[in-house]
Design goal:
The chain is mainly α. The chain is built from 2 helices and no strands. Helix 1 (3-26) packs antiparallel against helix 2 (31-54).
């Protein structure tokens, strides 16, 4: 699985997990609540596998941390995550000594 597919998969997994948790809370004390709880744990497990297993830069292999859903450049190698081109500039002022 590549990074773009993993990014597209993460957001629905979060929404499914939240919906299952809310359904579990609203139907407390029933068998449906137990199934919703199990579904939320299973969805969370799949989310963690996708996040830690596949949300890595395709060029340097380092994990893209927080903000992976909106990331356009790798913070480590500064390459564009789609095209692979390096980002120009360093983002700050440099003074010569």
């Amino acid at each position: 699985m590549n990074l773009q597919t993993a990014k597209k998969l993460l957001r629905p997994l979060i929404y499914i997990c939240i919906a299952a948790c809310v359904a579990s809370i609203l139907s407390t004390g029933t068998a449906f609540a137990m199934y919703c709880t199990l579904a939320s744990f299973a969805t969370l497990a799949v989310f963690l596998v996708v996040y830690f297993g596949y949300c890595k830069c395709p060029y340097c292999g380092k994990r893209i941390g927080r903000g992976v859903l909106n990331a356009t450049h790798c913070l480590h190698c500064r390459r564009d995550l789609v095209s692979g081109k390096r980002k120009k500039g360093s983002g700050g002022k440099h003074t010569k000594h």
